[in-house]
């Protein structure tokens, strides 16, 4: 929940948590849902990010969204969700992969998880300093 971020690179969205980054191939994404948090299904796995989400009263099926925005104005969450969906369709078309097809499982093998070494190191140093201060 600390330090979350969603970014969209040329090839894939990157979901960042406090201790790792998850790179998901766009062509492999089967489902994308943005409610309280963003959930992405790739293959048999579900990846969740708290960086992008809607307030409870605006989540579909939960509350009734207030229509107090001027005509033509789009929420940031809706804009980002649409950008990801458009890029998913473009990536599937470029790879010649159909949605929910067997061919979509091949790009799903390209999910990469990378540890975020700087935050891990800072957390470790902080915990070590806490332990030393308690023992002294």
What is the gist of this entry?
This protein is of the alpha+beta class. Helix content is 32%, strand content 24%.
Notes on the structure:
The chain has 136 residues and is α+β, with helices and mostly antiparallel strands. It has one domain (5-135). It has three helices and seven strands. It has helices spanning 76-95, 105-108, 117-135, and strands spanning 5-8, 13-16, 20-23, 29-34, 38-42, 45-49, 112-115. The chain has a four-stranded antiparallel β-sheet, with no helix packed on it. It has a three-stranded antiparallel β-sheet with strand order 4-5-6, covered by helices on one side. The model has no long low-confidence stretch (mean pLDDT 86).
Topology:
Elements: E1 5-8, E2 13-16, E3 20-23, E4 29-34, E5 38-42, E6 45-49, H1 76-95, H2 105-108, E7 112-115, H3 117-135
Main sheet properties: 4 strands, antiparallel
Which residues form runs of ≥5 with pLDDT under 50?
A: none
Secondary structure: helix percent? 25-40%
Strand order, sheet with most strands: 1-2-3-7
Q: Which shape, going by the Cα principal axes?
A: globular
* Share in β-strands: 15-25%
Order of helices and strands: EEEEEEHHEH
The count of domains is 1
Number of strands: 7
